[in-house]
Amino acid sequence: MKRQPPLTPDLTVRANGQTLSDMRPWIAAFLVAIVLAALPAAAETVRFPSATAPPTPLQQRLFKERGQPIAVPPTVEITGEFYRPASDGPFPAVVQLHGCAGRGSRESEDAAGARIVALGYALLIVDSFGPRDIKERCSGQWSGIERIADAYGGLFYLAGLPFIDPDRIAVLGYSQGADVALSAVKLGGLETLFDRHFRTAIAYYPWCDVFLGGVSVPTVILIGQLDDWTPTRNCREMMAKRSGEGAPLRLVVYPGAYHGFNIARLRGKPAESYLGHHIEYNEAADRAALAETIAALRQAFGR
Question: Does residue 111 form part of some domain?
């Protein structure tokens, strides 16, 4: 495999549109995570309900006026793979959301678990499709609200564990899961229905919505310049149209990188075409994005 040169992102922007020239990745933490990711990580399969929003004050008043019991929305039991440090905690945690093709391989999940645990955090990889008997949602219609509810279900599950710090939980998504992560922290969106929120959000190659507006927590978007599935131009347009309200939102674009630039199973292999889209591993972008991810978590968690 041809060795790629060090990669420098071509755009790093705050919510107000200012360019940052002094971003310093957490090199030491990055190197530790790279080394320890090779170690095995033990996962525990856990189950928890997808979140349901409580009735609004108006709904509660109407139920009371009509003498009806308050309706409780039905819940769906979701499964997830849970990785945690060996210490007693409390420690921060990350909720990870898969793409439109569903969960990754056990090898890739264990590697992700090892990286996060090496940083002193717990990781919950949410499976939105398995419990619903869905194979993929890449080419058909899908309910984004269901997956947002799953993300919050993971947040509530983690927050209820005695060894997790409930105020330091992040959401991390890939592709469609990145869309969900952005939607989960959209300022004035569904996050207003819940009394507990994520501390930060990290979105790998999402479909950037030009009408996203503000975000409620610090958020970073990591995407390849040559992505032909979730085009970078959408993200640039979104950033250009932002008013700057809400928490900081950063966009980091990796030159020469395509969609799925961090998919480990493609390392050292030819590029693939999936539903007509170019999917290719890029070692330089993968390493740079991992460093950005670690930096974002470190900043949000303060450790």
Answer: yes
Domain that holds residue 55: 11-301
Is 54 in a helix, a strand, or coil? coil
pLDDT tens for the 303 residues of the chain, in order: 444 444 545 554 433 333 333 344 445 545 554 444 445 567 899 999 998 765 555 555 655 667 766 555 567 899 999 999 988 889 999 999 999 999 988 999 999 999 999 999 999 999 999 999 998 899 766 667 889 999 999 999 999 999 999 999 999 999 999 999 999 999 988 888 888 999 999 999 999 986 677 999 999 999 999 999 999 999 999 999 888 889 999 999 999 999 999 998 899 999 999 999 999 999 999 999 999 999 999 999 998
What is this structure's pTM?
0.83
DSSP 275: T
Return all residues near 61 (Cβ < 8 A) that are at least 6 apart. Answer: none
**Partner residues linked to 259 by β-bridges:** 279
Closest CA to 239 of 219, 262, 259, 260: 219
**Token pair in block for residue 86:** 């060996």
Q: Which long-range contacts (CB under 8 A, 24 or more apart) does 189-197 make?
A: 190/53, 190/145, 190/148, 190/152, 191/216, 193/53, 193/54, 194/51, 194/53, 194/152, 196/152, 196/155, 196/156, 196/159, 196/166, 197/155
Residue 158, both tokens: 């983690």
Residue 295 lies in a domain: yes
If you ran DSSP here, which 8-state letter would residue 215 be given? Answer: B
Q: What is the CATH number of the domain that holds 161?
A: 3.40.50.1820
What is the number of domains present in the chain? 1
Q: What whole-number distance in Å separates Cα of residue 226 and Cα of residue 56? A: 43
How far apart CA 197 and CA 105 sit, in angstroms, is 29
